[in-house]
Amino acid sequence: xxxxxxxxxxxxxxxxxxxxxxRVVPALLSSxxxxxxxxxxxxxxxxxxxxxxxxxxxxxxxxERLGMLENLATLAGRPIxxxxxxxxxxxxxxxxxGAPPSIHGVVGYKVVVAGPGGPEVMNVxxxxxxxxxxxxYVDPASFQSCPPFGGVDVPVVSxxxxxxxxxxxxxQRGARQVGWYQASGMAVDVKxxxxxxxxxxxxxxxxxxxxxxxxxxxxxYDAELVALDRVVGDLLEVLPSSAALxxxxxxxQVSVGANLVEVDPASIDGVAFTSGEAxxxxxxxxxxSPAAAEHLSGTLKSRFGHQAWVATLEEVISQGWLGGDMNxxxxxxxxxxxxxxxxxxxxxxxxxxxxSRKLVCRHGSLTPAEMFVPxxxxxxxx
Length: 382
Fold this sequence. Notes:
This protein is an alpha/beta fold and 382 residues long. The protein has helices at 24-29, 59-63, 88-97, 101-104, 140-143, 166-172, 186-195, 207-215, 219-238, 290-304, 313-318, 328-331, 354-357, 368-371; strands spanning 48-54, 76-81, 110-115, 118-123, 128-129, 132-133, 155-159, 176-180, 200-205, 243-249, 254-255, 260-262, 271-277, 280-285, 308-312, 337-341, 346-348, 361-362, 372-379.
């Protein structure tokens, strides 16, 4: 049975000036001998660094299962905060460009863009709206203006399917793409890159997130973590002792299962449409006035305040959820009132696909399970 909160718990606000995902790549690429104390000790003095980004591997989920993970258990480090919303599109962009969402503008899974006939909601990972591919009117290369990897030439070892997609272009434009077809090939590619003298290699793996969404935290999830652990072992085996392997993630997960809360925007006074995702919904008012936002905020608190944090856009900005103030273009991609779940529920809508309603684990909100991710490392074993 779900415990009903009489008062909302404290939200995990990202530490954008400290141990945060947005600061990892700049810290690893820095030529300064002074490293932030929150970086894994294995990085100090390392001649080369391989950064493995595991989609969906939260610190809490990893910590609970270290006993079954021979290689990951040897990595030393700590938890850091990810960004808000705690979702792949936003977090991976912050990681790669070294900036909070308020600066880079990839502010969610589904965001508002200017379509041919007016505002549309675009799925950032698929770069699609309801009318189809959005690349003809939303240029991925200009949608996000911060230079990936600080302008440094970096090889990216990622699934071949992701090479050339709208989202990849938006957050990794100019990076050298090394596409892998099976996870077994990741270590082979990394070995060749390190032997060729690359000082920094970015590696991305999406299997943990995929299994958590489809199967939840069960035997399949544990089996996937064991498979990931073998990948980590393979990487450590091909790296010299002068190189460091660092492992982090974009977000954690919450098991939601069948705890679906039906939300029909058409039934809520003043709501034109929504964006975001099931654990972090943005509600857009018709007139976009402060008065309308305050009224809607009160309505949402009365209906969902026992399950979610409710905040107007101005409150989100002032409280630093996305990193601070933002320009007009980035503001236009957001809604007027945010609904972010703290209970293990998903806010679904009539238009959501049957497939999306079946997701077992989800993310996007500001709970510890979603917001804390690992930053751990070790030297290679050669």
